[in-house]
Design goal:
By secondary structure, this protein is an alpha/beta fold. It has 20 helices and twelve strands. The strands form three sheets. A five-stranded parallel beta sheet has the order 2-3-4-1-5, sandwiched between helices. Strand 10, helix 18 and strand 11 form a beta-alpha-beta unit. Helix 9 crosses helix 15 (330-339), helix 11 (250-259) crosses helix 15 and helix 12 (267-278) packs across helix 15.
Length: 502
């Protein structure tokens, strides 16, 4: 690694792996041009990260502007290239994208030992200039053939954008840039522990609730930090997600999120689909039925929402069934379940009253499912320090048939052993868990249910000899269960402090 490469600035929180990947990309001494792709949802911190990287190495960072025309974009980009070269604005009179891009690459190659050009929000440019990827392909190929071994590192180009489907298609199929990128970084949100540290939230229950409504997107903190959540979650929520005058008002934010993808044009249809999923419709057939539409009418919108990361399809870990469709974005889930049904009251200034009325919905349809999500996340990321077998394999959910009891048991958390494949027959099961966000503490009855499920899986041919039984509880455990866990090696109790690393 080049010792002159930048150390990550203190104001760039977390992102150590991503910073290392990008600086390694810059450190490549190859004189040929190299291409990287960075994508991620709105407010995940892509621009902040790339601006910091560009500033550290003296690169050229240019961002596209939504709804800007082709000629204004070319002029603004040309002025940025001129300024980077030390020329006065307007001195570069470029009229087409090939000249603009070629000059930008040449200028960055001459201006820094680590030449970097960042084009942020590329999808905005593609709306009026779809030829840009093809032109970049030509410039890339020319700079492969013409590179001199003694010329120093060639230009490093990073293309960035929030429209996930557009960014992912850049390298797909027969697209011009396919096979040319050496970095394809998809920047996700902070995990729930890092998010709590970033927000500097003292109380873990408050941290859980904030994560349940905003997720781990770091871009929300600057616009939703006052009052601070530790000052009182209910007050904070009423003055942020339920305040029409705030930038983070959930109706406004959901509209922004949906507008990021140019394929989302029928907003009413997409809103209705998201509401149906939020209310429990988990298959295409059920979603279509909730909308009173034929099933094929929702197939394309569901594909768009999945490619943008707004919904996810979760497979059963043990058996091939119809995947369960859920909302992936906490802000959208909050909007569809809490804000939209009470929009009239909220927008008349009755946010506190609306929030009080919505409390049962929040607890059952948001906090409960989110706690289950975090229990699975804990199992993937942190449980290896507590499990006898160390790092587990795939983690998810399943449903276990009980023919004797004529019922089915839903399993909130199941982890296969390392090396096992989902839906493989006779797989080794590392962990079976139940996660409950109810006010009641968990007791021996919950353990007996897990023991019954473990026995059923053993009867069905799965290897449960080393299976740990895990109970995840928002409000702790009864003393007899805690005493039992002290004596048993196959029982793991995870309360809120443990979930957050206490």
């Amino acid at each position: 690694m080049d010792e002159n490469l930048p150390v990550k600035p203190d104001d760039v929180v977390d992102r150590d792996r991503e910073w290392g990947l990008l600086t390694a990309f810059l450190a490549d001494p190859d004189p040929a041009m190299r291409l990287g792709i960075v994508s991620g949802r709105r407010r995940h911190g892509k621009s902040y990260l790339l601006q910091a990287l560009s500033e550290q190495v003296g690169g050229l960072y240019v961002t596209a502007v939504r709804e800007e025309g082709r000629l204004p974009a070319i002029r603004r980009f040309s002025d940025a290239v001129a300024a980077h070269a030390g020329l006065r604005p307007g001195s570069l009179r470029l009229t087409d994208w090939r000249d603009v891009l070629s000059n930008a690459l040449d200028v960055t190659a001459r201006s820094s030992p680590h030449p970097l050009l960042v084009i942020d929000e590329l999808p905005y440019l593609l709306q009026h200039s779809p030829e840009i990827p093809g032109l970049l392909q030509q410039l890339y190929d020319e700079r492969q053939r013409g590179a001199r071994p003694d010329a120093g590192p060639g230009p490093r180009l990073i293309l960035c954008g929030s429209a996930m489907s557009v960014m992912h298609e850049l390298l797909s199929g027969t697209k011009p840039l396919r096979g040319r990128a050496v970095v394809d970084l998809r920047l996700g949100p902070f995990d729930y522990r890092d998010s709590r540290a970033f927000w500097q939230i003292t109380d873990p229950l408050t941290a859980l609730k904030v994560h349940a409504v905003l997720g781990g997107a770091p871009g929300y903190r600057p616009v939703a930090a006052r009052p601070h959540p530790d000052d009182g979650f209910d007050t904070w929520l009423a003055r942020t997600l339920l305040d029409p005058g705030r930038a983070v008002y959930s109706r406004t934010e959901t509209e922004y999120l949906l507008r990021e993808d140019p394929r989302i044009t029928q907003h009413t249809l997409y809103y209705d689909i998201l509401t149906a999923i939020a209310n429990g419709a988990a298959t295409p057939s059920k979603i279509a039925a909730a909308l009173e539409r034929p099933r094929n009418a929702v197939a394309h919108p569901l594909g768009v929402l999945e490619s943008t990361g707004y919904i996810r399809r979760e497979e059963d870990i043990l058996r091939s069934r119809h995947p369960v469709i859920t909302l992936a974005d906490p802000v959208i889930r909050f909007n569809q379940l809490i804000t939209l049904p009470q929009a009239a009251a909220v927008e008349q200034g009755f946010a506190e009253q609306a929030w009080q009325q919505a409390a049962p919905t929040f607890n059952s349809k948001i906090l409960g499912p989110h706690f289950e999500d975090l229990a699975r996340d804990f199992t993937r990321r942190y449980a290896h320090t507590l499990l006898p077998g160390g790092l587990p394999g795939p983690v998810g959910t399943t449903e276990v048939a009980d023919r004797t009891g004529r019922t089915k048991h839903e399993v909130d958390v199941i982890a296969l052993a390392a090396g096992e494949r989902p839906q493989a027959p006779r797989a080794r099961i590392a962990l079976l868990g139940e996660a409950k966000a109810t006010a009641a503490r968990r007791g021996t009855g919950d353990l007996e249910r897990l023991e019954r499920i473990r026995a059923l899986l053993a009867e069905q041919g799965y290897d449960t000899a080393a299976t740990t039984l895990a109970l995840y509880s928002l409000h702790g455990f009864y003393p007899d269960l805690t005493e039992l866990a002290d004596r048993r090696d196959d029982l793991l109790l995870v309360d809120l402090p443990t979930l957050y690393g206490g």
